[in-house]
Amino acid sequence: MTRFSLIIYFLVPIGFTDKTPDNQKIMNGRDAHRGQFPFMISIQKLGMRKSLCGGALIASDWVLTAAHCSVALGLNMVLVAGTINSVKFDKGYQERRVKSIYYPGNSSGPGILNDISLVRPNKRFTRTKFIKVLPYQRCDVSIGDRVLIMGWGTFNKSGEMAKILQWAEAKTNEFDVCGGDAPLLNHSGFACIRGDNKKLTMARKGDSGSPGIYRGKIFGVVSMGISMFSYGSLYTKTSPYHDWIVSIVPRNGNGEEMRTLYEAVSSFLIVSSFAFPGLL
């Protein structure tokens, strides 16, 4: 069996010379419109205007992202909300520095990477029409579930980042779609995400930490994958870290009443009109 190396989808911010294939973004994604995903956070490095990772605003003062993003950037991380343009920020954007970063600890078993983290900004984000919270709730996905993916991943051979937030429809697949011959990984901690064969959609380099959404809830964050066209991407599932997340982040979104995060819609694939009724 041919073996490939799984790579972390973090874009090195300085001295990056990797020749990234044209498909290295949210594959076959489309531009998001402002306000479509108001919980999305562009994670950047102090002094740069380039999205290096993504994150989700799960409370006014908590951002959920991948651990490898937080480790790489540390307190040099800048959190940007309220913009779909990661270079020329939209009017009304808000920018925060980092107060603290939380990790779930060392690996708790073979192949468990714990590639998830919680970032606390130095000041709460003020909620507006374009900045809203998607409160965390436990979410599990099964093979075949249709999901939404999003991010500001790279999209050309020079490693240029997508300036406008991209999103796409995809689904949960068997692990071999993401390179199932990775014996060192505990498959139960990851979800393999890719679109169907007619229109491949997947996360790529620079999308790290960006949330995957299932029925209005966050099922995982972009972690790693094989940098080849046909393979999907691995998302760190949130469900194994449920107890850890709720032990840190208030269950009710900083004192506000928790609302139902998902309401049935006639067609999940009509995403242009897909609503997040649980946004606060």
TrEMBL record:
Keyword Magnesium: no
Residue ranges of domain Peptidase S1 in the record: 26-250
GO-annotated molecular function: serine-type endopeptidase activity
GO biological process: proteolysis
Keywords: Disulfide bond, Hydrolase, Protease, Serine protease, Signal
SUPFAM superfamilies, sorted: Trypsin-like serine proteases
Coiled coil start-end: none
Signal peptide (from-to): 1-17
Top-level taxon in the UniProt lineage: Eukaryota
PANTHER family named among the record's database cross-references: FI18310P1-RELATED, POLYSERASE-RELATED
Family assignment from sequence similarity: Belongs to the peptidase S1 family.
Protein name: Peptidase S1 domain-containing protein
